[in-house]
């Protein structure tokens, strides 16, 4: 395992602890203790902490080093609102800009994830989910929009990853993706935008359902919204 991979895995583990409340706001991240806990040198620990700072979960404080940030619900609401608008715009543009080959590739990517849902392969589905959304970003034909969407998704990635701990969330996510793919295949920009908004709304609700003590509640039922008139 490379140092970069180690740092990423450590970053994911610490981020999951923060999201689930196992590392409370204000908790110091001691490099020496973490290196011992993860059985690594301090180099990947420093890189993991740097990534956590970039995601907004950790901040550097004078004389204390890195400490866990408090991420209040209002802050999450703001971040998810931006994410929802960015992804909805990506979907709307992709409905017109995607080539037949790109639509076919998205359909194949989506269908392949069905096996992950049936096998309840959470980690693999998380990766497939990222690939799905990347395909929609790229399908928008707007490179700056895709770059911005990825940046915001990175900030929210620990929370988006945690949603899949909810019972039946994998299957619900797959169904939501199906409606997005179908709208894109029809070239229906209004429906694609609306379905992506619904999808990101359910993601936000699923994050709210996380038990900060370490478990996850049942996934909420998606709230449908009517597509806006063109």
UniProtKB/TrEMBL annotation:
<feature type="domain" description="HTH gntR-type">
    <location>
        <begin position="4"/>
        <end position="71"/>
    </location>
</feature>
<dbReference type="InterPro" id="IPR036388">
    <property type="entry name" value="WH-like_DNA-bd_sf"/>
</dbReference>
<keyword id="KW-0238">DNA-binding</keyword>
<dbReference type="InterPro" id="IPR008920">
    <property type="entry name" value="TF_FadR/GntR_C"/>
</dbReference>
<keyword id="KW-0804">Transcription</keyword>
<keyword id="KW-0805">Transcription regulation</keyword>
<dbReference type="InterPro" id="IPR036390">
    <property type="entry name" value="WH_DNA-bd_sf"/>
</dbReference>
<dbReference type="GO" id="GO:0003700">
    <property type="term" value="F:DNA-binding transcription factor activity"/>
</dbReference>
<dbReference type="Pfam" id="PF07729">
    <property type="entry name" value="FCD"/>
</dbReference>
<dbReference type="InterPro" id="IPR011711">
    <property type="entry name" value="GntR_C"/>
</dbReference>
<dbReference type="GO" id="GO:0003677">
    <property type="term" value="F:DNA binding"/>
</dbReference>
<dbReference type="Pfam" id="PF00392">
    <property type="entry name" value="GntR"/>
</dbReference>
<dbReference type="InterPro" id="IPR000524">
    <property type="entry name" value="Tscrpt_reg_HTH_GntR"/>
</dbReference>
<protein>
    <submittedName>
        <fullName>GntR family transcriptional regulator</fullName>
    </submittedName>
</protein>
């Amino acid at each position: 395992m490379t140092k970069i991979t180690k740092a990423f895995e450590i970053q994911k583990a610490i981020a999951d602890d923060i999201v689930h409340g196992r590392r409370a706001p204000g908790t110091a991240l001691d490099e020496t203790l973490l290196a011992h806990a993860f059985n690594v040198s301090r180099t990947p620990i420093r890189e993991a902490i740097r990534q956590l700072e970039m995601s907004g979960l950790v901040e550097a404080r004078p004389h204390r080093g890195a400490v866990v940030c408090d991420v209040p619900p209002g802050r999450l609401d703001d971040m998810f609102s931006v994410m929802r608008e960015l992804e909805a715009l990506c979907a709307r543009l992709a409905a017109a800009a995607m080539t037949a080959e790109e639509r076919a590739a998205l359909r194949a990517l989506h269908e392949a994830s069905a096996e992950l849902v049936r096998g309840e392969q959470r980690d693999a589905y998380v990766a497939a989910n990222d690939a799905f959304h990347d395909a929609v970003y790229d399908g928008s034909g707007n490179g700056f929009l895709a770059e911005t969407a990825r940046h915001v998704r990175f900030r929210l990635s620990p929370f988006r990853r945690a949603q899949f701990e909810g019972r039946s969330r994998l299957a619900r996510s797959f169904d939501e993706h199906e409606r997005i793919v179908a709208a894109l295949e029809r070239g229906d920009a209004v429906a694609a935008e609306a379905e992506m908004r619904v999808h990101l709304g359910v993601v936000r609700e699923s994050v709210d359902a996380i038990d900060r003590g370490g478990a996850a509640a049942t996934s909420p039922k998606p709230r449908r919204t009517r597509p806006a008139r063109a």
